[in-house]
Design a protein that fits this description.
Layout lengths: L1 E5 L5 E5 L4 H10 L6 E5 L5 H12 L3 E4 L5 E4 L22 H8 L1 E5 L7 H9 L3 E5 L2 E5 L7 E3 L5 H11 L5 E5 L5 H12 L3 E4 L7 E4 L7 E4 L5 H12 L3 E5 L7 H10 L2 E6 L2 E5 L11 E2 L11 H7 L5 E6 L8 H7 L3 E5 L2 E6 L7 E2 L4 H13 L3 E4 L2 H7 L1 H9 L3 E5 L1
Parallel strand pairs: 2-14, 3-13, 9-10, 17-18, 21-22
Antiparallel strand pairs: 1-22, 1-23, 3-5, 4-5, 6-8, 7-8, 10-12, 11-12, 14-16, 15-16, 18-20, 19-20
Helix pairs in contact: 1-2, 1-6, 3-5, 4-5, 7-9, 7-11, 9-11
Enzyme class: transferase
Pathway: Cell wall biogenesis; peptidoglycan biosynthesis
Protein name: UDP-N-acetylglucosamine 1-carboxyvinyltransferase
Amino acid sequence: MKYKILGEFPLSGTVQISGARNSALKILAGAIVSDGFLELFNVPRVGDVFLFIELLKSLGVSAEFKSNGCLEINSSGLNSFELPAFSKNIKSSILFVGPLLARFGKAILPQNSKYSFDMNFKVLKSLGVSIAEKGSVFEFECSSLRAAEINFLSSTHTGTDNAILSSVLAEGSSVITNAAAEPEVDDLISALNKMGAKIKRADQNPRTILVEGVRNLGKLEHTIIPDRNEPVFYASCALFTNGSIVIKNLNTNHLTSFISKLSFMGANYEIISPSEMRIWADPENLFKPSNIEVKPYPGFMADWQPFISVLLTKAAGESVVTDMVLNRFEFAKELNRMGAKIEFLDSGIKVFGPTKLKGVITEAEEAISVAALVVAGLGAKGKTEIRNAEIINSELENTKEKLQNLGAVIKEKA
């Protein structure tokens, strides 16, 4: 399966942003620590969420979308502490281990050599968990989780989530220092507190999280916060196609570092309200070059840099994009094949503009890189073919429909 994009059609119209995938996944994992009934609204219908729902069902938990869009979850039927074999392909399945230990005192996680869980294992060991590698699985055991002081040497989103989920039912008070500050972490804290947890950020240092363990957690009604990646993706699509769109159901307070870059580059936007913005391009004006450095929240988000890199091919001059994780720049090789002039640096890329992209046959390994190529293809001259449809089907199928509603020409081919 592959998709073909016919470029140079300006996008126009209105698009609704989905709930945050990263919030939904961790709250779904947290459903296991509750012995009550959960009602979740604004849950994004994307590949990873559906996989997590299937994972919950394999453990005996019921989970079903209702006609009003609510995802109803009941963990009273939880009957297994062994994560299914397919979970080995989902790196974030590590988030289920702490909740399973809290319920059973045991957990089994399939191994995948592609993923390293060293940081997460350190968190679990500090809480009194023993970890054994047996055959193709990891076995975790702890008769009673105990509170701990957990310090991260560098900010880690998943590590912070794991520390919270694993300590919420631990005996005593845990302290998590150098914790991640992302809005999705706060959404997890909010959901757990509604269920009866006692979690807060320290008044003097918001990167310190205090968790007072409780005996059990109850029911929940919660609305997932808006996604932070989607609005930047659609804004980039509009700007790269010389279009004009209105983006709704977002949280502009979570996008300040991106919006400030738009201002610096000379892009046109209007904040209509905290949950709505308009963005449009003037084909007569080139963007100003800009230097981008990926940093933890509230800095520039790692998932945004492929989109801004595409936009910078239309900037009049040299721009530098830096990120300590270099494999996030694989998409740039494909952009060069499309006519971009991008030079690889020790810690990022240098983008020379302006250049005009042309459609080619492209391929990428990760969904975020595929999404960047979608942005490029929408503004490129001619047809762009994107392969690896299994990635697109699992992560971008919803996005394809929204783009088509905005006037994009995208065709699915066998």
